[in-house]
Specification:
The complex is a heterodimer of chains A (about 325) and B (about 625). Chain A has about 325 residues and is α+β, with helices and mostly antiparallel strands. Helix content of chain A is about 65%, strand content about 10%. In chain A, the strands form 2 sheets. In chain A, strands 3-4-2-5 form a 4-stranded antiparallel sheet. A two-stranded parallel sheet of chain A has the order 1-6. With about 625 residues, chain B is an alpha+beta fold. Chain B has 4 domains: about 170 residues, Up-down Bundle (Multidrug efflux transporter AcrB transmembrane fold), CATH 1.20.1640; about 80 residues, Alpha-Beta Plaits; about 80 residues, 2-Layer Sandwich (Gyrase A, domain 2), CATH 3.30.1360; about 150 residues, Gyrase A, domain 2. Chain B is built from 16 helices and 22 strands. In chain B, a hairpin with a 6-residue loop joins strand 16 and strand 17. In chain B, helix 6 packs across helix 8 and helix 15 packs antiparallel against helix 16. Classes of the chains: A alpha+beta (about 325), B alpha+beta (about 625). The interface between A and B is large, with 88 and 87 residues. Strand 5 of chain A pairs antiparallel with strand 21 of chain B, so a sheet runs across the interface.
């Protein structure tokens, strides 16, 4: 089998401007939704109590809501979780009431209304933990960005490092934009997914950059334009197959992983789809705008024994 | 060119064997067991306890699969749950005659069903996190400011005594927050006081400020000493928590320090959060009283008479009764520290107590009046008192520093100090994070996690085999090996596997296939440009390697960032993610090459390889066009 029977290099870079415009619009939309709607942060970030209870019959949410708000909690969220029988209740942090009292009180009230109810899970997070998580998340993001730029700068050229990170941060913002638009719950595992996507789609850009470097060496007469087109075309097959396989895994998590992995898989799916787009159409284009030249990658000095360069001496 | 030397194959075989060996325990499942562990800091679980357990089981006519001493507990495994319950009753009866004062915790537990020979290789199943096995998790924040304030209070007392000993006159010592202010009249006194503090209190630092005609000496705890105080406070709180949790009879509680001022408590299998919280938050009390040494009391001590009015009978730790007066001299609140040590002259092991200002004043008074008599330190827990130690008062003790010595081994001194300290928390704690996971949810999570890994793996393997034919089969086997090694390493490290960890495992497989796709596509490309099959395999692997390395390093950077800054579920994800990247490099490149070499390497005149369609454009130069 061979899906990709491409006869000629596809002139991607001719349309680079269009691709960049599309990215920019998506990006702007994502930022807009992030600013106007904001993320629906999970209890891990905001602090508060989450309870998951299971009924033997499909639960009536309105009744559950009534029972819980009857206890004097003003801002209660009650929703189904996974199946119709499972209900998730979110309570905000309340001063003067400990988490234990909160969850017991609620469970007691629910039991009074329907003795069949069982507690599946409770979670309480104090407000100070949330702040730290946000801080930790941002630090992790910063470390990924700096680490990747430095690595790519050493391995290739700073322009590639910058291009890759811009392209992939744009993915991250778009994922967040989706979560803001649909008001999906942004939890710690989603954060992990977002950062994993960052590493994963950078690796996509790396594969293309690798090809660009190789093509610069191999085809000395090609222009930068053509080299990039060639690199993208020749890695196309691999890009689609790899991402397809990863996506198969992610979908498997989406369908079999249950509600706990639902948003994790969703974040990965969006990340993978936009990851393909951005590394193919955006990263290389940015590198081009930044003015990547043959001389940047094929340095005569490099020929004699740079231990980091596996292709040293491979130029013809 | 496509041959591995023997040693490379040897490495592959050894790695595979080790991988299989350490993955094996995960397949045996778990069997019911009874676990016996110590309920008191002073009771050790050793081979003697193991023997007692064995004898108790024999007497009850229950045959265990085995009885083993592991770390600080004895475990007996059984074939079925009803024998487990019967055995628990038998062991409980034999080891814990007095249920109100247990020396041992006898708890039901699950242990791996894996055979003994695997255990002896330290091959254990993966350690499942709470979200997979159910239980309670707490994160407690220790109020370090309170610990420092308490310490400053005790230093204030110490300084007061030291100044008096040296006859340095001061105009009042007071604690201001975590500092101690000493007022002095003139400069000479100030210098004297300052020198004294520099000499005797190495952990303190004094700075002076003129205040009108007088001087104020502000004493602060040095930063490094502050750190030490905080460390000790944390450690003491952990010890206290340990003692309290022991009562819950949890088989494998986890009590860990997190960061500088936090403690994580995980109680697998416990569902009753309210009771757990109640026990964690309880305070044990310590009381210092005088021993009643009247004739009636003596008689009561030996059991020949009633306990006199105004006294109570308690047992010492060695079981000897002591008659103690009801009047309380001091409580644990006045005790700021208890440390084991050695007597300066006799080199005997001692326990050194520090009392706060109020405590020292009372203590001096009481000791002055009762020289030659005994006093008892009683620890109350669950409303039951136990005499920790009952020393004889030799001299008047002023200054709040008390030394208990005589007839003690070093170990006993350690235990006594621990018990005295454990009576109270060094600093108040607050629960800042808590979650409970029901056992059914845990089982669901395991099933869901495994389902996603298996189905995803199957989908990828089927596709690879169809698209890349034999090379796809090699890639799929390599992928399987990747999972095997990942599970083996996680089992070996006994890292906690959580649901996000399983997700990371699934993701690792999705990412690992990238390397094989890269290799296979490269080989096809080489074949397309007309290179001989053997050379195509060689260059395909060679060229793909650089790309694989680059892309894995970038993914690893993200993984390490998560590991460094993440907490809780993110960490669980990151650990598996990072290990997965490393194993994938081994399996996708080194191992799959081994398979390819084994299959094709010996064929000198290889005409074609089974890697699916190698489609060639009409003109060879179309792709790599040259202008």
């Amino acid at each position: 089998m061979e899906f990709f029977r491409i006869k000629k290099d596809i002139p991607f870079m001719k349309h680079a401007l269009i691709f960049n415009a599309i990215s920019f619009i998506t990006f702007a939309l994502a930022v807009f939704f992030l600013l106007t709607r904001g993320l629906h942060l999970s209890v891990e970030f905001t602090g508060g109590t989450v309870m998951e209870v299971a009924y033997s019959q499909p639960a009536e949410l309105a009744k559950v809501r009534e029972t819980v708000s009857g206890l004097g909690y003003p801002d209660v969220q009650v929703q189904n979780f996974g199946t119709a029988r499972d209900v998730m209740i979110r309570l905000p942090v309340q001063k003067g009431v400990t988490s234990a009292q909160q969850s017991e009180q609620v469970l007691g009230a629910l039991k009074a209304a329907d003795p069949e109810v069982t507690l599946r899970r409770t979670e309480f997070v104090g407000p100070q933990v949330g702040e730290e998580l946000v801080h930790g998340g941002l630090m992790a993001l910063a470390m990924v960005v700096v680490g990747i730029v430095i690595y790519l700068a050493l391995r290739f050229e700073w322009k590639f490092g910058v291009a890759a990170i811009i392209a992939n941060l744009h993915d991250v913002v778009i994922i967040l934009g989706f979560f803001a638009f649909f008001q999906w719950e942004f939890s710690l595992s989603v954060l992990a997914a977002v950062l994993a996507v960052l590493g994963y789609s950078v690796n996509e850009s790396v594969v293309i950059f690798d090809r660009i470097r190789e093509a610069f060496r191999k085809y000395r007469k090609m222009t930068t334009h053509e080299v990039i087109d060639h690199a993208i075309t020749s890695t196309m097959s691999r890009t689609i197959i790899t991402h397809g396989s990863t996506e198969a895994m992610v979908l498997s998590m989406f369908f079999f992983g249950g509600p706990s992995l639902h948003y994790f898989a969703l974040a990965l799916t969006i990340g993978i789809l936009f990851g393909i787009y951005s590394s193919v159409f955006v990263a290389a284009a940015i590198a081009m705008w930044l003015g990547v030249k043959r001389e940047d990658l094929v340095k005569p000095v490099r020929k004699d024994g740079d231990p980091n360069d596996p292709h040293a001496g491979a130029t013809v | 060119m496509n041959r591995y030397p023997v040693w490379k194959y040897a490495i592959l075989v050894i790695v595979l064997l080790v991988g299989v060996l350490y993955t094996l325990p995960n397949f045996f499942g778990e069997a019911p067991a009874v676990q016996v562990s110590s309920a008191k800091a002073t009771v050790k679980v050793d081979a003697a306890v193991q023997q007692r357990v064995e004898e108790a089981l024999k007497a009850a006519g229950v045959t265990p699969d085995f009885v083993a001493l592991e770390g600080n507990s004895v475990r007996a495994r059984f074939a079925a749950s009803d024998t487990q319950l019967k055995a628990k009753d038998a062991i409980q009866k034999a080891l814990v005659p007095d249920a109100s004062d247990p020396s041992y915790i006898v708890a039901l537990n699950l242990v791996s069903r894996s055979p003994v020979w695997l255990k002896s290789l330290h091959a254990n199943p993966m350690y499942l996190g709470l979200d997979l096995r159910g239980g309670v998790h707490f994160m407690l924040q220790v109020d370090m400011q309170a610990a420092l304030t308490k310490k400053a209070e005790s230093y204030a007392g110490d300084i007061r005594t030291a100044l008096r000993d040296k006859s340095i006159r001061h105009g009042g010592i007071s604690r201001e927050g975590q500092n101690i202010d000493i007022k002095v009249r003139d400069e000479a006194t100030m210098t004297a006081a300052r020198n004294l503090i520099a000499d005797q209190f190495t952990d303190l630092q004094a700075t002076s400020t003129p205040e009108g005609t007088e001087f104020k000496l502000r004493v602060a705890i040095k930063p490094e000493a502050t750190r030490k105080v905080q460390e000790q406070a944390l450690k003491q709180n952990m010890v206290t928590l340990h003692n309290r949790i022991n009562e819950l009879g949890v088989a494998e509680p986890v009590i860990q320090q997190q960061g500088l001022d936090r403690i994580v408590v995980q109680l697998p299998g416990v569902q009753d959060t309210a009771k757990a919280k109640d026990i964690l938050g309880r305070t044990a009390t310590l009381e210092v009283r005088l021993v009643d040494e009247g004739t009636e009391a003596r008689a009561a001590e030996t059991g020949r008479g009633p306990v006199p009015f105004g006294s109570e009978r308690y047992l010492e730790r060695n079981g000897q009764p002591v008659i103690v007066k009801k009047q309380v001299i001091l409580t644990g609140e006045n005790l700021t520290d208890a440390q084991p040590g050695f007597d300066g002259q006799t080199q005997e092991p001692t326990v050194n107590l520090s009392l706060d200002a109020k405590g020292s004043k009372i203590f001096r008074m009481i000791t002055a009046e009762n020289i030659g008599k005994r006093m008892a330190i009683v620890l109350f827990e669950k409303g039951k008192g136990e005499v920790v130690t009952a020393p004889v008062i030799r001299t008047e003790i002023g200054g709040g520093r008390v030394q208990i010595s005589g007839r003690m081994t070093t170990a006993e001194a350690n235990d006594t100090a621990l018990l005295l300290r454990a009576g109270s928390l060094a600093a108040p704690m607050e629960i800042i994070e808590e979650y409970t996971i029901g056992p059914s949810l845990g089982a669901d999570n395991i099933k869901r996690g495994i389902d996603s890994v298996v189905w995803g793996l199957a989908a990828i393997a089927v596709f690879m085999c169809i698209y890349y034919m034999l090379f796809g089969v090699f890639s799929s086997i390599a992928l399987g090996v990747n999972v095997l090694l990942l599970v083996a390493i996680l089992s070996m490290l006994q890292a906690t596997l959580t649901l996000p960890g399983i997700a990371a495992m699934a993701l690792a497989i999705g990412v690992a296939i990238d390397s094989n796709v890269l290799i296979n596509e490269r080989i096809r490309e080489e074949l397309r440009s007309g290179v001989s099959p053997q050379a195509a395999i060689h260059t395909g692997y060679e060229r793909a390697w650089a790309t694989i390395l680059d892309s894995n390093v970038t993914t690893l950077i993200a993984g390490l960032a998560l590991l460094a800054f993440g907490s809780g579920p993110v960490r669980g994800f990151a650990v598996v993610h990072c290990i997965g990247i490393l194993t994938s490099m081994f399996s996708a490149v080194f191992f799959s090459r081994g398979l390819v070499n084994l299959w094709y390497g010996r064929q000198k005149k290889l005409k074609s390889v089974s890697i699916g369609t190698v489609w060639k454009p009409d003109t060879d130069t179309a792709v790599a066009k040259t202008n």
